[in-house]
Amino acid sequence: MNLTRLKWTKNVKNQDGRYWAYKDKTEYIEPAENIFGLNWKYNQYENTCKPQKDDFIILRQHARVTHVVRVIDNELYKELTAKEFSFYRMVKTVWIANDGTIRQLTSKFSVKKSFFREMEKLST
What pLDDT is attached to residue 120? Predict the structure, then answer.
């Protein structure tokens, strides 16, 4: 996997108190393709627009890496009925941790090198 497009990290949390967000594939827009809408708050319009098609985003929850996703288009979507998290981008999961492999961050925006070695192995 070419990690040169890994440019973003995003802190997320599950609003209903479950262990972590975006784990349940039944909530995905296209479960068979691992595609879902990654939400941003209504006041983060500019941040929502920054990632470009094919950029990778590391999703962090509770100071741990839980997902790596790829932005699948340059479209900005809006949920008309949502109040707080009204903007979203369509992303595809390329890596997801299971409960035993959630990765601890070594600093606010860096990940242990072993994580990237694991990502490279998955792509071959």
Answer: 61
